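Lay summary. Proteins are chains of building blocks that fold into shapes, and those shapes determine what they do. In this project we predict the shape from the chain. Here is one chain we studied, written as its sequence of building blocks.
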Amino acid sequence: MNPTLTFEQVRVEHPAQWDAFVSLMREYASADLNNPGMSSIHGDIQQPQERYAGVQGQAWLIQTPEHLIGCGAFTTTREAGLAELKRLYVRPEFRGLGASRQLTLHLIAQARSAGFTRMGLSTWRSNTLALGLYQRMGFTTMPAFKNHPDPDLVYLGMTLTALNAVTTHTS
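And here is the predicted shape, written in a compact code that computers can read:
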């Protein structure tokens, strides 16, 4: 892969885009989930628009001019002002090229534009690459914001105020 690839984010709005988003979630569920039996991804696959459309949240695809390479989303939580970053997935052959960082930055900006003041996420303690990325981007440990049966989840969050917002430049 060319390390100078250009990525484009596309908001999921049309049926073909929802199909692509669901297809990527299926890939994610079959290959990258730590404990698939405890995940809510199966419900998301069945009815993604209930969770990621309208006032509930947004779903996005990331692509190169030639390839669909990943997806991500955010959704509301039971805590006022807190968006949950969800379903961040980049196909293995495109990892290490900055697509996850770029898509995360984009989702942060979109959540801020939608009126959220904080963003939270959960991932597994064993997912050290993702944890490192999120921590470099300014996410810090936060209390659990949802009930989940997996004790191995780590919860991270950040505020989305203009003063401390992550910028889109790369270092």
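What the prediction tells us: The longest helix spans residues 15-31.
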